[in-house]
Amino acid sequence: MGTPSLQDFQDQVSELLLRHRSLLDVLSKNGQSSASVNRSVAKAITDCGCIELHATKQTFAPGLNLEEAKETVRTHVQGELCENCREVISTELGRNLFYMSALCNLLDINMDEVVQKESQKCSTLGLFNMS
Q1: C-alpha closest to that of 27 among 96, 76, 118
Q2: 131 occurs within a structural domain
Q3: Would you say residue 1 lies in a domain?
Q4: Do 10 and 104 touch, CB atoms closer than 8 A?
Q5: Is the CB of residue 50 less than 8 Å from the CB of residue 82?
Q6: Which phi and psi angles does 47 have, rounded to 5°?
Q7: What angle do CA 19, 85, 88 make, to 5 degrees?
Q8: Residue 85 burial (C-beta neighbours within 10 Å; 0-12, 13-18, 19+)
Q9: Helix crossing, 111-125 with 6-16: angle to 10°?
Q10: Is 51 helix (H, G, I), strand (E, B) or coil?
C-alpha cells in the first residue's frame, strides 16, 4: 500500500469524524490545534532548548538577484529539533491537518484541489507570492 493522498486522508477523516460534525466545533478545534502547534514549537525553544530563536530585522541590499537575496534571508532558528520535540511537533501538525481536513469536508472543499491551486499560484507568482 502506497502513501495515502490528501483525498484518501480526507475520506478517512470523514469516516472517523463523529463527534465534531458541527462547523463551529471544527472551527474551534482547528484554531486550538493551530495554537498547539505554535506552543509545541515555543516549548522546543523555552523548555527543551534544542532550538534557539535569534530574530532580527530582515534586510535586503538593493540590487541583489534572487539567489543572492535567498542567501541573505535568515530563518532565525539555530540548532535542530531533538527527537522528542520533533515527535511532539509532528503529532500536533498531524492533529492540525486532521481538523483542516474536517473543515474541508464540512465545506465540500477538496484538499488536493486546494494544494494544486496553491502550487499553481506559487509557480506563477514565484518570489512575489507571499509578499
Answers
A1: 96
A2: no
A3: no
A4: yes
A5: yes
A6: -95, -50
A7: 10
A8: buried
A9: 140
A10: strand
In a domain, 116, yes or no: yes
Q: What's the burial of 20, exposed, middle or buried (CB within 10 Å: 0-12/13-18/19+)?
A: buried
pTM, rounded to two decimals: 0.82
If you search the block for the grid coordinates 523555552, which residue do you land on?
46
C-beta separation of 122 from 129 below 8 A: yes
Q: What is the pLDDT along the chain (131 residues), one digit of tens a residue?
A: 677 788 888 988 888 876 667 899 999 999 999 999 999 999 999 999 999 999 888 887 788 777 777 777 888 999 999 999 999 999 999 999 999 999 999 999 999 999 999 988 888 876 555 44
- Residue 24 lies in domain: 6-125
Instruction: Give CA 77 to chain center in angstroms.
Output: 16
Beta-ladder partners of 52? 78
Q: Which three cell numbers stand for residue 127?
A: 518570489
